[in-house]
Task: structure prediction
Amino acid sequence: MSEERSPLIVEEEVRFTLTELCVACNAEQMQLIELVEEGVLDPEGTEPEQWVFGGHAMRRARAALRLSRDLQLSFEATAVVMDLLDEIERLRARLRRAGLG
Result:
């Protein structure tokens, strides 16, 4: 009899420093610092040298950087777009839970 395992969500277990996240996203430190300042990314720690990002930050940073580059948006505008995308996802989840999506 085989033992069932729950799926491992690696994204929640991965941690990045600012430098590591820059490498993973092919981004400059200043770009990621601006994303933090605009609320797109939410690291643990108070100073950039102490910041630690969860695994989900890589996906989110890449999406924000792509939006900024492809649509030529400021980081402030990118933050607004990311907020709207988050809201759409929350609404879709509510619809799924209600059996309507």
Summary: Residues 21 and 58 are 7 Å apart (CA to CA). The radius of gyration is 16 Å.
